[in-house]
Amino acid sequence: MDKQRHRPVLVELWDMTQRASMRTIAYMNEWHARYAEAGLRVIGVHTASRPEAEDEAAIEAAVKRLGINYPVVVDTDGEIWSFYGPQGYPSRYLFNGDFRLEDIQVGEGGYAETEELILGLLDLKAEPFGPVRPEDSDDALIVVPSAERLGLGSGPYAAGSVWLSVTGSGTVVVNGTSFDVDGPAALEVVTNPVHTEGDLTIAPDAGVTVLATCFAPGIAA
Length: 221
Description:
The chain is an alpha+beta fold. It has two domains: 2-132, Glutaredoxin; 142-219, Jelly Rolls (Sandwich). It has helices at residues 19-22, 25-35, 56-65, 79-84, 111-122; strands spanning 9-14, 41-46, 72-74, 91-95, 101-106, 142-143, 149-150, 155-174, 177-182, 185-200, 202-204, 208-216, 218-219. Strands 7, 8, 9, 10, 11 and 12 form a six-stranded antiparallel β-sheet that branches. Strands 3-2-1-4-5 form a five-stranded mixed β-sheet, covered by helices on one side. The protein is globular and about 50 Å long. The protein starts with 8 loop residues before the first strand and ends with a strand.
Protein backbone atom coordinates (compact mmCIF):
# COMPACT_ATOMS: atom_id res chain seq x y z
CA MET A 1 0.00 0.00 0.00
CA ASP A 2 2.95 2.39 0.49
CA LYS A 3 3.30 2.59 -3.30
CA GLN A 4 -0.28 3.90 -3.48
CA ARG A 5 0.29 6.89 -1.17
CA HIS A 6 -1.38 10.12 -2.30
CA ARG A 7 -3.93 8.30 -4.48
CA PRO A 8 -7.26 6.74 -3.49
CA VAL A 9 -7.30 2.94 -3.43
CA LEU A 10 -10.31 0.65 -3.84
CA VAL A 11 -9.78 -2.92 -2.62
CA GLU A 12 -12.28 -5.74 -3.03
CA LEU A 13 -11.91 -9.19 -1.47
CA TRP A 14 -13.70 -11.79 -3.57
CA ASP A 15 -13.94 -15.48 -4.49
CA MET A 16 -14.54 -16.98 -7.93
CA THR A 17 -17.03 -19.53 -6.55
CA GLN A 18 -19.21 -16.96 -4.75
CA ARG A 19 -22.16 -15.67 -6.78
CA ALA A 20 -22.20 -12.24 -5.09
CA SER A 21 -18.55 -11.72 -6.07
CA MET A 22 -19.50 -12.26 -9.73
CA ARG A 23 -22.15 -9.55 -9.57
CA THR A 24 -19.77 -6.74 -8.53
CA ILE A 25 -17.11 -7.26 -11.20
CA ALA A 26 -18.83 -5.08 -13.80
CA TYR A 27 -18.70 -2.12 -11.40
CA MET A 28 -15.06 -2.69 -10.43
CA ASN A 29 -14.09 -2.97 -14.10
CA GLU A 30 -15.93 0.23 -14.98
CA TRP A 31 -14.44 2.23 -12.09
CA HIS A 32 -10.96 1.10 -13.08
CA ALA A 33 -11.59 2.04 -16.73
CA ARG A 34 -13.09 5.40 -15.81
CA TYR A 35 -10.83 6.63 -13.05
CA ALA A 36 -7.41 4.93 -13.22
CA GLU A 37 -5.94 7.78 -15.26
CA ALA A 38 -7.30 10.26 -12.72
CA GLY A 39 -5.47 8.45 -9.91
CA LEU A 40 -7.76 5.70 -8.59
CA ARG A 41 -6.05 2.37 -7.90
CA VAL A 42 -8.41 -0.61 -8.08
CA ILE A 43 -7.16 -3.90 -6.61
CA GLY A 44 -8.89 -7.26 -6.34
CA VAL A 45 -7.85 -9.73 -3.64
CA HIS A 46 -8.89 -13.31 -4.28
CA THR A 47 -9.31 -15.18 -1.00
CA ALA A 48 -10.67 -18.70 -1.32
CA SER A 49 -13.79 -19.45 0.71
CA ARG A 50 -13.40 -23.20 0.16
CA PRO A 51 -10.55 -25.57 -0.77
CA GLU A 52 -11.82 -25.90 -4.35
CA ALA A 53 -11.08 -22.20 -4.96
CA GLU A 54 -7.44 -22.25 -3.81
CA ASP A 55 -5.73 -23.32 -7.05
CA GLU A 56 -3.70 -20.39 -8.43
CA ALA A 57 -3.88 -21.56 -12.04
CA ALA A 58 -7.67 -21.76 -11.76
CA ILE A 59 -7.77 -18.24 -10.27
CA GLU A 60 -5.65 -16.90 -13.13
CA ALA A 61 -7.94 -18.60 -15.64
CA ALA A 62 -11.01 -17.14 -13.91
CA VAL A 63 -9.57 -13.61 -14.04
CA LYS A 64 -9.14 -13.97 -17.81
CA ARG A 65 -12.51 -15.66 -18.34
CA LEU A 66 -14.34 -12.99 -16.35
CA GLY A 67 -12.61 -10.15 -18.20
CA ILE A 68 -11.24 -8.52 -15.04
CA ASN A 69 -9.18 -5.52 -16.17
CA TYR A 70 -7.59 -4.50 -12.84
CA PRO A 71 -4.79 -6.18 -10.84
CA VAL A 72 -5.73 -9.19 -8.72
CA VAL A 73 -3.67 -10.41 -5.77
CA VAL A 74 -3.96 -14.07 -4.77
CA ASP A 75 -4.31 -14.26 -0.99
CA THR A 76 -2.90 -17.78 -0.79
CA ASP A 77 -2.62 -18.06 2.98
CA GLY A 78 -5.57 -15.83 3.87
CA GLU A 79 -3.31 -13.24 5.49
CA ILE A 80 -4.94 -10.29 3.73
CA TRP A 81 -8.39 -11.60 4.67
CA SER A 82 -7.30 -11.84 8.31
CA PHE A 83 -5.86 -8.32 8.19
CA TYR A 84 -9.10 -6.78 6.90
CA GLY A 85 -11.41 -9.00 8.93
CA PRO A 86 -14.31 -8.84 6.46
CA GLN A 87 -17.78 -10.18 7.21
CA GLY A 88 -18.59 -11.75 3.87
CA TYR A 89 -18.06 -11.92 0.09
CA PRO A 90 -17.35 -9.63 -1.53
CA SER A 91 -16.03 -6.93 0.80
CA ARG A 92 -15.06 -3.54 -0.62
CA TYR A 93 -12.77 -0.98 1.06
CA LEU A 94 -12.15 2.56 -0.19
CA PHE A 95 -9.12 4.45 1.14
CA ASN A 96 -8.13 8.06 0.54
CA GLY A 97 -4.62 9.18 -0.39
CA ASP A 98 -3.58 9.22 3.27
CA PHE A 99 -4.69 5.59 3.80
CA ARG A 100 -7.72 6.68 5.78
CA LEU A 101 -10.66 4.34 5.33
CA GLU A 102 -13.52 6.20 3.67
CA ASP A 103 -16.05 3.42 3.11
CA ILE A 104 -16.76 -0.29 3.62
CA GLN A 105 -19.32 -2.29 1.69
CA VAL A 106 -19.99 -5.96 2.48
CA GLY A 107 -21.88 -7.89 -0.19
CA GLU A 108 -23.67 -6.39 -3.15
CA GLY A 109 -25.03 -2.87 -3.36
CA GLY A 110 -23.88 0.62 -2.47
CA TYR A 111 -22.56 1.15 -5.99
CA ALA A 112 -23.74 4.72 -6.47
CA GLU A 113 -22.51 5.71 -3.01
CA THR A 114 -19.08 4.20 -3.67
CA GLU A 115 -18.74 6.01 -6.98
CA GLU A 116 -19.80 9.31 -5.46
CA LEU A 117 -17.05 8.90 -2.85
CA ILE A 118 -14.53 8.05 -5.57
CA LEU A 119 -15.49 11.18 -7.50
CA GLY A 120 -15.11 13.27 -4.36
CA LEU A 121 -11.65 11.87 -3.62
CA LEU A 122 -10.56 12.56 -7.19
CA ASP A 123 -12.27 15.98 -7.27
CA LEU A 124 -14.21 14.97 -10.39
CA LYS A 125 -17.78 15.33 -11.59
CA ALA A 126 -19.39 12.57 -13.62
CA GLU A 127 -22.63 10.65 -13.94
CA PRO A 128 -22.34 7.40 -11.92
CA PHE A 129 -22.17 4.15 -13.84
CA GLY A 130 -25.07 1.70 -13.83
CA PRO A 131 -27.17 0.20 -12.57
CA VAL A 132 -26.14 -3.03 -14.31
CA ARG A 133 -29.29 -4.82 -13.13
CA PRO A 134 -32.69 -3.36 -12.18
CA GLU A 135 -32.29 -4.64 -8.62
CA ASP A 136 -29.05 -2.63 -8.23
CA SER A 137 -30.95 0.65 -8.31
CA ASP A 138 -31.16 2.48 -4.99
CA ASP A 139 -34.94 2.77 -5.27
CA ALA A 140 -35.56 -0.81 -6.43
CA LEU A 141 -38.15 -2.82 -4.53
CA ILE A 142 -36.54 -6.24 -4.20
CA VAL A 143 -37.79 -9.49 -2.70
CA VAL A 144 -35.71 -11.72 -0.44
CA PRO A 145 -34.79 -14.90 -2.38
CA SER A 146 -34.59 -18.51 -1.25
CA ALA A 147 -31.73 -19.35 1.09
CA GLU A 148 -28.51 -20.89 -0.22
CA ARG A 149 -28.49 -24.68 -0.39
CA LEU A 150 -25.36 -26.77 0.00
CA GLY A 151 -24.75 -29.08 -2.93
CA LEU A 152 -27.52 -29.85 -5.42
CA GLY A 153 -30.48 -27.62 -4.78
CA SER A 154 -33.13 -29.08 -7.06
CA GLY A 155 -36.71 -28.31 -6.14
CA PRO A 156 -38.93 -25.25 -5.63
CA TYR A 157 -37.26 -21.85 -5.36
CA ALA A 158 -38.04 -18.13 -5.41
CA ALA A 159 -35.46 -15.64 -6.74
CA GLY A 160 -34.46 -13.20 -9.42
CA SER A 161 -31.67 -15.50 -10.58
CA VAL A 162 -30.11 -18.84 -9.71
CA TRP A 163 -26.38 -19.53 -9.45
CA LEU A 164 -24.35 -22.68 -8.98
CA SER A 165 -20.98 -22.88 -7.26
CA VAL A 166 -19.26 -25.67 -9.13
CA THR A 167 -15.93 -27.39 -9.68
CA GLY A 168 -14.63 -30.13 -11.93
CA SER A 169 -14.83 -30.55 -15.69
CA GLY A 170 -17.80 -31.35 -17.89
CA THR A 171 -21.32 -30.00 -18.04
CA VAL A 172 -24.25 -29.39 -15.74
CA VAL A 173 -27.81 -29.29 -17.07
CA VAL A 174 -30.30 -26.99 -15.36
CA ASN A 175 -33.92 -27.13 -16.44
CA GLY A 176 -32.88 -28.52 -19.81
CA THR A 177 -30.08 -26.01 -20.52
CA SER A 178 -26.46 -27.21 -20.53
CA PHE A 179 -23.59 -25.21 -19.00
CA ASP A 180 -19.91 -25.98 -19.47
CA VAL A 181 -17.74 -26.36 -16.37
CA ASP A 182 -13.96 -26.10 -16.52
CA GLY A 183 -12.71 -25.62 -12.98
CA PRO A 184 -14.12 -23.81 -9.95
CA ALA A 185 -16.65 -21.12 -10.79
CA ALA A 186 -19.96 -19.47 -9.97
CA LEU A 187 -22.37 -19.85 -12.89
CA GLU A 188 -25.62 -17.99 -13.45
CA VAL A 189 -27.94 -20.74 -14.66
CA VAL A 190 -31.40 -19.13 -14.42
CA THR A 191 -32.15 -15.46 -15.08
CA ASN A 192 -35.62 -14.08 -14.41
CA PRO A 193 -36.75 -10.54 -15.25
CA VAL A 194 -38.36 -10.21 -11.80
CA HIS A 195 -38.61 -12.20 -8.58
CA THR A 196 -40.03 -15.53 -9.70
CA GLU A 197 -41.21 -18.74 -8.10
CA GLY A 198 -40.21 -21.87 -9.97
CA ASP A 199 -38.69 -25.34 -9.87
CA LEU A 200 -35.11 -26.42 -10.44
CA THR A 201 -33.82 -29.64 -11.91
CA ILE A 202 -30.02 -29.82 -11.70
CA ALA A 203 -28.13 -32.70 -13.34
CA PRO A 204 -24.30 -32.53 -13.35
CA ASP A 205 -21.95 -34.83 -15.25
CA ALA A 206 -19.94 -37.33 -13.25
CA GLY A 207 -16.94 -34.98 -13.53
CA VAL A 208 -18.78 -31.96 -12.09
CA THR A 209 -19.47 -31.26 -8.42
CA VAL A 210 -22.12 -28.73 -7.41
CA LEU A 211 -20.82 -27.15 -4.21
CA ALA A 212 -23.82 -24.91 -3.58
CA THR A 213 -27.03 -23.67 -5.17
CA CYS A 214 -27.42 -19.94 -4.61
CA PHE A 215 -30.19 -17.42 -5.21
CA ALA A 216 -29.98 -13.71 -5.99
CA PRO A 217 -32.77 -11.22 -5.32
CA GLY A 218 -35.00 -9.85 -8.03
CA ILE A 219 -37.31 -6.88 -8.20
CA ALA A 220 -40.92 -7.29 -7.11
CA ALA A 221 -43.30 -8.21 -9.93
